[in-house]
Amino acid sequence: MAKMTLELAEECIRKAKEKAVEMKVAMFIAVVDEMGKLVAFARMGETGIGFGEKISMAKAKTAVAYKRTTKETMDRYANYPGNYFITAMAGLHPDEFWAGPGGVPIIVGGQLVGGLGVSGSTPDNDHKCATEAIANIQEK
Fold first, then answer.
1. Cα angle vertex 58, ends 1, 111, to 5°?
2. Residue 130: phi, psi to the nearest 5?
3. Tally: H helices and E strands in the chain
4. Is 19 in contact with 129 (CB distance < 8 Å)?
5. Rounded CA gap, 33 and 114, in Å?
């Protein structure tokens, strides 16, 4: 049975950092386990965003909770009138919910083991960094 370990979390952080360097962006990177508990965190250099660590953690937690990317969650609920679902969830779960690109579930052997969240660049860059960083991990 696949499980989140510190070694796996550190591998996810390393791959996200490598992708961010390739993209020439600095990121906040968080990995949580299948219960949404923080396992590993990294901050790259001087990032310009003030709440990046909280956002990266919330993205990772949201990816675990919904078992899909945070971009998919955003797209799923974006057309609701007034974005009431996104607004309500953010209000009910401050620091825990983020429906914006940059969070991905970590699936190993077909099983959800955790989530990766990155923050620090544009929504498109955050999504690209997260999804491409763990692409090979999910194939294990």
1. 15
2. -65, -50
3. 5, 4
4. yes
5. 4
For residue 95, which of 27, 48, 38 has the smallest C-alpha distance? Answer: 38
Q: What is the dihedral of CA 12, 97, 57, 75, to 10 degrees?
A: 40
Provide the whole-model pTM.
0.91
| pLDDT band at 137; cut points 50, 70, 90 | confident
Q: Is 17 helix (H, G, I), strand (E, B) or coil?
A: helix
Distance (Å, whole) CA 7 – CA 78: 36
**Residue-wise pLDDT tens digits, 58-73:** 999 999 999 999 999 9
At 41, which amino acid appears?
A: F
Angle at 28 between CA 24 and CA 33, to 5 degrees: 130
Structure tokens, 34? 């299948």
Note the residue count of the chain: 140
**Eight-state DSSP code of residue 25:** -
Secondary structure (H, E, C), 45-103: CCCCCCCHHHHHHHHHHHHHHHCCCHHHHHHHHCCCHHHHHHHHHHHHCCCCCCCCCCE
